[in-house]
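Q: What would this chain look like folded?
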Amino acid sequence: MKLFEEKIIDSTCRLVRIPSVYEESPEFIFGEPINRCLDEALLIMKELGFQVFKAPDGAYGYAEIGEGELFGVLGHIDVVNAHKNDGWERNPFDPIVKDGYLYGRGVQDDKGPMMAAVYAFKALLEEGFQPKKRVRFIFGGDEETLWRCIAIYKEREETPVMGFTPDSAFPLTYAEKGLLQVLIKSEMPAAYDYEGGDSFNAVATKASCPYHPQIEDALNQKGYVYKKTGNSLEVQGVSAHAKNPWKGISANLNLLDAMHASGIEDKAITFIVECLKGKYRFEGFTEQDYSDFSGPITINLGKMKASKEGTVFSVDLRLPVTQKKDEIMELLRSKAATYNLVVEPFDWLRSIHIPLESNLIQSLMGAYQEVTGDCVAKPYISAGASYARAFDNHVAFGANFPNYPTSEHQPNERIAVANLIKAAEIYKVAFKKLAFDVESGNVSRKIASIAPSVTLEVAALAKSMREQGEDVISFSAGEPDFKTPKNIRDAAIYAIENGMTGYTAASGIIELKNEICDKLLRD
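A: My prediction, written as structure tokens:
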């Protein structure tokens, strides 16, 4: 996969340069930037020779190759918001490779991993392997918000029989906790204005309220980080994903705690302070232990806004795999009612649990172990919400590696280039195990078993000369049963003049590829 490193990085950067954050739009279902990014993703796939389709409303798109039962690779091109003044060292949508890392919003979640999977598949095609399944790369545009893209896809399209999403970590995730998002509201005027956070699924890094000396005193007494800006107080937190909120510091919780300590009497504030107790566990709501093998219930106050119009808290909960949603909703409603608050459901994603002995998991684990040599790391359980739960018999598979820090949803999101390429190598082996006819091998090798292949002889000679330290460029085009077309010769010249050694120049030109196939009597 080293030969594809530049292309993986280049294609990832093409997507990262588009700030594909959800926005309201009368013209585009998820906003113009997401629509533009979907177009760019499908253009990349078309350039690689895939058949592409974009939903008329722009909710999703896909690219596929092959015949037979459907194998799915699910990814998303939308990202959470990012601002340079949130701690980014540079523009989050101006990607750069620095000190071996690729930086930019989406390089880890999920644009980089998706491109790694795409080029892993492409590498097998270029080696002559034939898919035994119809492989479809599905690009969603609403993963970070409400998953409407997947809901619409499932209403209209064929369901893959198996597959994976490169949107988590290696070796793989075999179970994901349920995701419940609710709005907790009061229609009563708030005692004091405040707001904070950007989304349900991220720990708030900023929360603010109008300046008040008693609130400032409380912030100082509690040691919370804040700054005074004009006539307001801005509390600062540390970002983290809502799947593990304890890794961050919630600006929302700290501000409300200080406001409560300052003597402000407001039932909505009291509810948060008493029930969350400044933490992320569920103990403030009940003494009952709702944990199972996947862990406890966790809770994150992602967004909040209070004014004379009322109060709205946007709350994200991750439920144990075996936990019923309705039971938790009833508990939330009962508790909130004692503070004159109401609870409204906003979103729900079911939990998943794939047996460890399944063929899918055994094959993917085999691919990971074959490439890395790591037989210690085990499949794990995640509180994250990946597209794996969209369909049966799908799991989250990479692209983060064990013992490497994750940075999705955080400032300076980055991924080690070496890890991205290694992930592509793992995906390549996984595709070979699950979606390709391994016996098909390289077409040239099959021909060579019938008659000597000049191509292979030249390639072997070139390899031998390289191993001896000589600079070698080898190129072959055409077959003995037809004269080499002028455009193939032109492609060869272009490849040599532009340093495209190690890459079959014709393979990326769709019209040329079709012409070659028309002339050949074999494929």
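The CA atoms of residues 177 and 321 lie 5 Å apart.
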